[in-house]
Specification:
It contains 5 helices and 8 strands. The protein is of the alpha/beta class. The protein has a single domain, classed as Aminopeptidase, CATH 3.40.630.
């Protein structure tokens, strides 16, 4: 039965897999609109349509699914609560981001959140999501003896402020192999490499954000991976960012294969 809160919805599954989509939310609370430049209210840097892309596959495989309501422009659920940079030396977005992925300011002059507002957002939006995420992992571990976390993301192919050039289509991250059993990294890398339609990399520019790094605890029977997929694989990367069912239908078998291979793993395999 799906659990809904003001912050997220959680659909528990029957298998030891939880799929997290921390950047699919696009709402910005009305009482915060006055802070933002008008362009920001369109939430252009959302991980658009991932619930549509993954949802049916997740249900068929018996995976749990947690989906937030609010935009990363309000608070980034994939950043650490202390707001330390995820990728030192590269352009980073913060716990409460202040810039678009193109580098321009999200906020009107003098309206960026101060320390008190950041703390309020962390407690009201960030913490409930993470409490629910860990509670679901705990439930899966209690039921199956271990838990698997697949952190699903998507991004535009070219964003010079964040990275050089054009991203590979599929960017698998396991924090250089630290967030999961080595056999999981090898198995999913093999799935990516066994096809030639989509370009791919393992632990490249995107090695895994806070969720993968924090919840990927192999020594404690929690294994986490991140997939950053280029949006060109299933949608238009130009406004209004329309879902492209014909493209989605081509990549969904590969998503199913990745998730199935992840589920094939167990501590006994």
């Amino acid at each position: 039965m799906t659990t809904s809160s003001p912050v997220f919805k959680l659909s528990p599954g029957s298998r030891p897999l939880l799929i997290s989509m921390p950047h699919v939310g696009y709402e910005i609370p009305a009482d915060q609109h006055h802070r933002y430049v008008p362009r920001a209210l369109q939430s252009e840097d959302t991980d658009w349509h991932l619930e549509a892309l993954y949802g049916e596959i997740a249900r068929e495989l018996g995976a749990s699914l947690i989906v937030p309501r609010f935009s990363r422009y309000l608070i980034d659920l994939n950043r650490p609560p202390e707001d330390t940079p995820m990728y030192p030396g590269a352009a980073n977005t913060e716990l409460c981001p202040t810039r678009f992925f193109t580098g321009e300011s999200l906020y009107l002059e003098g309206q960026a959140p101060d320390a008190e507002e950041k703390l309020r957002r962390r407690e009201q939006y960030w913490r409930p999501y993470h409490q629910a995420l860990q509670a679901e992992l705990d439930r899966l571990k209690a039921q199956h003896g271990y838990a698997l976390l697949f952190d699903a993301h998507s991004i535009r192919s070219e964003l010079p402020w964040l990275f050089e050039g054009r991203l590979p289509d599929l960017n698998l991250g396991t924090v250089e192999g630290k967030s999961c059993d080595a056999a999981i990294t090898a198995a999913l890398a093999d799935v990516q490499a066994s096809q030639s339609v989509y370009s791919q990399v393992v632990n490249g520019r995107f090695k895994g954000g806070y969720i993968t790094r924090h919840y990927g605890q192999p020594a404690h029977a929690q294994h986490a991976v991140q997939l950053e997929m280029c949006q060109r694989c299933y949608m238009s990367e130009l406004p209004p960012y329309a879902y492209a069912p014909e493209l989605a239908a081509q990549v969904q078998p590969l998503i199913r294969q990745l998730l199935s291979r992840l589920l094939d793993w167990s501590p006994r395999s």
